[in-house]
């Protein structure tokens, strides 16, 4: 299914870039017998609104329908949406935006008897991320090796 993404990504990216928006992620999946092409878009710095998503959806749909040969020969549902407030951190832009922001980190193995942490991302590099976390009534710094991170995403602090 990544062949579909590889063939439509340049077309989709061009449309999104021309509107000053940012392609966050794409997926082509089959769920309950139905194919879905999901495209997640955002706009910096304040996010994307529903009117922009609707306009992009129409443009992307028209452009994909006009491609020859058709990279999506099977019936599919096109879904364009915002990635949401708690989206995964994947791209360089995501990492830059996450710096000094509140994030959630899930681990493959425990550090200090826990497999999940939430805190403020203080720094990152290819080898590790540094979080400022709350530990009961005090704040402390936790360094997490990148190879132990199963998932990482933006989080909402309560």
Give structural notes.
With 158 residues, the chain is an alpha+beta fold. The protein folds into 2 domains: 2-81, RimP-like superfamily, N-terminal (GMP Synthetase, Chain A, domain 3, 2-Layer Sandwich), CATH 3.30.300.70; 92-154, SH3 type barrels (Roll). The chain contains 3 helices and 8 strands; from the N terminus they run αββαβαβββββ. The protein has helices at 2-18, 50-66, 92-98; strands spanning 22-31, 34-42, 76-81, 102-111, 114-124, 128-135, 138-145, 149-154. A 5-stranded antiparallel sheet has the order 7-6-5-4-8, with no helix packed on it. Helix 2 links the parallel strand 2 and strand 3 (76-81). Helix 1 crosses helix 2 (50-66). The longest helix has 17 residues, at 2-18. It is elongated and about 60 Å long. The mean pLDDT is 91. Required for maturation of 30S ribosomal subunits. Belongs to the RimP family. Its main location: cytoplasm.
Short overview:
The chain has 3 helices and 8 strands; from the N terminus they run αββαβαβββββ.
Task: Specify the oligomeric state.
Answer: single chain
Largest sheet: 5 strands, antiparallel
Radius of gyration: 19 Å
Structural class: alpha+beta
Helix percent reads 25-40%
The chain-level mean pLDDT equals 91
Low-confidence stretches: none
The CATH topology of the largest domain corresponds to GMP Synthetase, Chain A, domain 3
CATH superfamily membership of the largest domain: RimP-like superfamily, N-terminal
Termini separation (Å)? 38 Å
Architecture of the largest domain in CATH? 2-Layer Sandwich
Strand order within the widest beta sheet: 7-6-5-4-8
CATH class of the largest domain: Alpha Beta
SSE arrangement, N to C: HEEHEHEEEEE
Integer count of domains: 2
How many strands appear in the DSSP assignment? Answer: 8
What's the total helix number?
3
Beta fraction:
35-45%
């Amino acid at each position: 299914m990544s062949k579909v993404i590889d063939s439509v990504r340049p077309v989709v990216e061009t449309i999104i870039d021309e509107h000053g928006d940012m392609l966050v992620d794409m997926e082509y999946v089959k769920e309950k017998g139905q194919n879905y092409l999901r495209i997640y878009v955002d706009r910096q710095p304040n996010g994307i609104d529903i009117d922009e998503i609707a306009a992009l959806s129409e443009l992307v749909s028209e452009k994909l329908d006009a491609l020859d040969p058709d990279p999506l020969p099977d019936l599919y549902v096109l879904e364009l949406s915002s990635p949401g407030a708690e989206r995964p951190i994947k791209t360089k832009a995501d990492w830059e935006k996450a710096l000094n922001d509140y994030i959630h980190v899930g681990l493959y193995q425990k550090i200090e008897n826990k497999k999940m942490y939430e805190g403020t991302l203080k720094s990152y590099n290819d080898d590790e991320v540094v979080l400022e976390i709350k530990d009961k009534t005090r704040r402390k710094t936790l360094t997490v090796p990148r190879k132990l991170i199963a998932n990482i995403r933006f989080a909402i602090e309560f």
